[in-house]
## 1
Amino acid sequence: MLGVLQGFTLILVIIGAGYATALFRVVEGEQRRVLNNVAFFVATPALLFTVLSGSDPGVILSPVILVTTAAAVLSAAAFVLASRLWFRRDLAGTALGATSAGYVNANNLGLPVAVYILGDAAYVAPLILVQLIFFAPTLLALLETTRIPEGSRPRGRGGAARGALLALGRAASNPIIIASVLGLIVALAGVPVPEIVAAPLGMLGDAAIPMVLLSFGISLRGQRALQPGTGRAAVFTASGIKVLLMPVIAWGLSHALGLGAHEVFVATTIAALPTAQNVYNYAATYRRAETPVRDTVFLTTFASLPVIAAVAWWLG
């Protein structure tokens, strides 16, 4: 558990540094969005290209990854159902809430958990690919539809189809999606990336996660988490699905597919990871459901630690 505690401590220290930055007025108010924008448009695309271009896409077909992917999709669907039944959200809020319920922190916390609890980082690396290739582009495409001005949305017969094409066109110009597609193409083609290209991209990519965490910490200054009127029902629902329901779904699917004891343990542990900070970066960049997503990331980061410890004690 020492490695897991180190992973949690690393995240919390950087978030705390962001909070201190706001506390001492080094960065104030909307200035933090500069960090979000640089992370979204520059650092994160560099990180995704670096990760995907050096990966093996074939590993996403492992049984554990199929189980965790299915658990994430079912968790997102559970949030959508709960939203329709108990608290209605707009498209962006529903998409971001559903993503918060299933998109795991496979990098900052997933890697320490994989190394120190599961015994092999290879268990988490494929999930990073799945989230980058499928989940992130889907969310960004949905968010792009909310950026189309009302007067510009096609109406009448065939308007819905034209609107969808317009949104897809805007999504196709998104730097994160472009970087992911290019990285995947390079990996599939087996083309080596020259060092003169890989080195600066790697340096930029290393800055992505710290900038997102700093911006997250800055956003906490002057705004208490889980305040009334900030969508607490959605936050508690997404958080409960993420740290409680998703591990149960993964455990059940693993047994249903006849996976071995260790594979059941791995899939359940991965599913118990908290919501990734990337989801907050997307929400902050598009300025949609920012506060509920921030609170969900905050809550699941703390709540997941005892859940992961319980899973390790029960199944490990």
Note: The CA atoms of residues 43 and 273 lie 24 Å apart.
## 2
Amino acid sequence: MTVAARRIRFPRLRALLREARSLPTVALLALIAVAGVPLVIMLTPEKHVEVFGQDIGVGARVPPLSLSGPAQIVQLGNAEFDLTEIEVYGPIRPRLSIGPLTRPPDNGPLLDAQSADDPGGVDAAVRELTEGFATWYLWGAAGMVLTALLGSAAMACARLLVALRRGRTRNRPVHWDDHAGPIGRMTTIALAASLLLWGGAGVAALHGTTTGLGKVTSLSDLVGATTVSPSPVGPPVTGVTGAVIGDSRAARIGGPLVEGPDGTVAPDDAACSRSVDSTAAQLSSLRGEQVLNLACAGASVPAGLRGPQQRDGVTVPPQVGRLKQVQGLEWVAVAVGPNDLAWSDFLLYCYGLETCDDRLSDGEFDARLAEFARDTGALFADLDDLPGRPRVVVTLSYDPFPATFDPACPDMRGPAGTPGLDQAKIDLLTERNRRLNDVLADGAARFGFTTAAPNLTPLCAVSGDRMGPDLQGLDRPDPFHPTALGSLRMAASTAAALAVPREETPGSR
């Protein structure tokens, strides 16, 4: 290097160092670090990728005042959760937005791990998330450049205003040439410092993200879903061949309550509305066996079957936990679904509004159905691991409405002052019930369980044998639930499924 070159380079370097120590430049750098980075994180749009069949938005959370912290997941319309598997140092901490959840095309458990015949599924998911974050990060880098330029412009204006005020006070003219050099050096330093800050934070974020994602095998790992099976609850049970678990349809809400030998009703039986003509009682008569009734009105998979249920001031233990205490159990019948989807919400929506096929309700149904698919997968895994591997029969959800709308039927018109149902609404509810049954049937097939499809006469229709209605109408306290006859038909469908030898059931094991 020639002496002339050194004379050119070193003065410029010394000028940059002097400018880096100046008050305006120090203030600008502090402003970029304290406010610029959070602003860029907040304003940079998420990059959307598809992972485990779900649309996930990849971005970063606005960093709290700490040196490190976890990434975050936000389910739209729901709470925020820290992803403890992903710990990141620095201000850039990934944020994943998911929802509404979408059930996989094969109707499998929503958050289940990738199957053994698809070993690359997890690697592909990690790659998609990493690439999505890298894309978001590059857009953020462009935002940092823009922030540095805007901050430099604002600080340049402030410097010129101060210079003009001083010049007016001292009666000295202000020339642009005297300030162009310092402003240019300040802008150069701001740009370099912004990119270095963003680059360092990005390296730390990428390292923390890839390290954390290396532990992920399913979407369950991200959201922290648990599939821990309920523990055995209560004393051992002997002398029964089968058991029924489920909701109010299996408990047969609306019927006379079952009484003990002393004529009293046990607290659990009263709280769960278990009737003398429940599915379990009907199966006991049809098969000539002792059948344990654990079904409970209002039960869902998380609150009732896999977890405790609060019902009329009584804490009912998990039905699966009670099943684990049954010795010599040969078969289990399970009826779930409508409570998990809060089916009554959609019924009220369709009865009360002129139309109920809007995007809001459809999106809500999709989200609930996807969550139910996840919960059902966990439930079926519990049943598959029961001691002795009893046979499992999954009861599908019956459709309470006829295929053709009957305007003369009071159960179609609904309560006074409401639009009631029409053909389009019936078709919509029927389709949603079919999708619910898809989850149950496909989940049962995955585990080799048998399915039973009750053939109940819908509302406003007359059964072929003319024995009476199978369902309670709107004039009853528990509409859409089976009558005693409907409960018998449900039990008959389960008995027919149990009559088929297990080895003849498709997919059984």
Note: The chain has two domains: 3-223, 242-504.
## 3
Amino acid sequence: MRFDEAYLGNVFIGACPDLESSKIVIFGMPMDWTASFRPGSRFGPKRIREASLVLEEYSPYLRRELSEVNYYDAGDIPLPFGNPEKSTAAIGEFVDRIMQRKKMPLGIGGEHLVTWPVVRTIYKYHRELAVIHLDAHADLRTDYEGEKLSHATPLRKIAELLGPENVYQFGIRSGTREEFAYAEREKIHFHPFEVLSPLKEELSGLRGRPVYITVDIDVLDPAFAPGTGTPEPGGITSGELLEAIHTIARSGVEVVGADLVEVAPVYDPTEQTPVTAAKVIREMLLGFY
């Protein structure tokens, strides 16, 4: 599918059919090739779009409506099954076309490895880039079982590209001893367990800077998002995640891209996980852009 080709599948609620008049491009990254526990996140983008139809287009939190924001749903990037190297290259090329058109990317995963090629591409256009990462897992490994391209490694790659001091991590409650030691040693802005309080403190130092936001749905406690490949007890509530998105939106940082990843719908027959993910994306659209 060409980037400018009309997407005839299901689209996120309220999406504009015209690419040129849109400021934001939504796109799916249906990849779970390196899942370490339970696969299935490649079905996340489609199900989140379908779940978005249950939402209202008006946000009472931000007092804005989706009709006030032009965004285009480009569909899912066709990715070669089982090949993380070619898949990440394809994602990077796709995002580069978005950036060339001076539009903002909003990605839907897929496993968390998909964030790496997106950030790597945006960094070419925004050299002062910082990344805000909300997740249960540190994702700071150099490899997972010998595989360097893994959903356990994207934030390590990002830290090495941007500089660790430009990475801000919140809600982390799982990782190896080495990952936690790396974060401390390399001066990552590392905030295990908590999100809201440290996020509010850190945002003042990011005001005016280009920032990329990546949200792994498992930052939520499994009670609020059971539909994910690597659930981790002890997380935040869906209300706290929404408040975090609103806090970023009102902070004055320049959001230049965002994603939400790791929704695996098959593990949640109640569908609360894709519905929650869709609502978070709605608030991103209305708050960040």
Note: Strands lie at 24-29, 58-59, 64-65, 71-76, 104-109, 130-134, 167-172, 189-192, 210-216, 254-261.
